């Protein structure tokens, strides 16, 4: 076929689309998987048409070696579109679960393409020219068409299942949230129908040959692709910004929850630092504060601080020194090489007050941060030589009680934030030790404040809608002790953690059962959307809290 205005326009359009998509893949591939598959879909779609046009332009005839780079991209395009939809809907596990099966057609035809290329180079020793032509013009195209239609229908079903399982919005809002992506799937189903009609045309009209009948179809494709490229890019960025804002709001609620329990522990200046560094500080302090709540003797308190310093701060070593009656600093608790795993210190050492870095901190009551201990003659080696050390005094009743000490094998390891954090941890330790000394049974944290903020988080962030929510998961999310969280909920809600979470789920379900916007929802779908993971748990919990079944509740005026 000769070069004409139609095929040149189509070729240039596809080539520009290919370059734009490739550039964006290289630019965004690591940042956003939605955009990655979005551009991969557009790029492979353009490559399919470019390959066909190279035959029309006689480029393949002039340069036969170019077919080495021809791949069955028509089998990749539906795969990338599926991946795009799954990531857009946050259902990427569906794509990963079925990825191997999705790539079977591509791998099959890749192997077939390779065989045909070798066969052509060797001048058709195994497969005749006629059979090669049939494979290329009929079997390949028809198989790609069938695969594309099947994938388009499957994509539509993925969206439908997503709508049925979505519980954050009303029925109308769910439809609105999927309108854009569903419109894309319908568009591609229409394009598949046009493709099918074009193939049928060749069977009805044997006198028609070449790729000219595809040109109007391809022009529509290109118009759609560039529209999709422009509006799709804007839409995806808008969705990402909204998601980022939503995540930030949840994170702010979590930070507020963490800070709320620290107000009665720290002074105004200390709280000012916490507010300035919420992400780095509040989670760790909140965990320490809640972890200490059930410790009733000094040994448990000191060991808990050491173990959690390592666990939360990723330190190599942590030792708490205690000043005994003989004014000697003895190692009372440790983590790292000094701990044999049974809360026993290996080869404990004693340091006189005023000797070494730790002894000097105990004498002066001021912290020491040594960036390179090899240049400090006061350094006393313990289990092994390290490069940097941070030692902070621990007070009790306005007197030096001991020293919180940590060493690291890296020079200049401890930063200003570590110094501040160690001082705050020492303050926490002082609060708890004071509580033990005065026989005060109240917790160092404010249970009522924590519970109030937890309830706010449930209501505003609606974390109860996560069917996999557990005591361990939420305590990890909030960075507080799971034991503390369990006892907090038991004490202030009058029930266990499961009953507490289910109470919010039941209220959510009750609202939906009476809301006209959810009349098209089945009872079980409402239960699942409210956070229950099965029909039986929903019905059992609902009847326990309300005294009636969900069906009876819905039918009651």
Automatic annotation (TrEMBL):
Keyword Cytoplasm tagged: no
Membrane-spanning intervals of the chain: 6-26, 38-57, 63-88, 100-122, 142-159, 180-203, 215-232
Residues of the HTH araC/xylS-type domain: 453-556
Top-level taxon of the source organism: Bacteria
Family annotation (SMART domains): GAF (SM00065), HTH_ARAC (SM00342)
Gene Ontology molecular-function annotations: DNA-binding transcription factor activity; sequence-specific DNA binding
UniProt keyword list: DNA-binding, Membrane, Transcription, Transcription regulation, Transmembrane, Transmembrane helix
The keyword Membrane is assigned to this record: yes
PROSITE patterns for the chain: HTH_ARAC_FAMILY_1, HTH_ARAC_FAMILY_2
PANTHER family, sorted: ARAC-FAMILY TRANSCRIPTIONAL REGULATOR (PTHR43280)
Protein name, entry field: Helix-turn-helix domain-containing protein
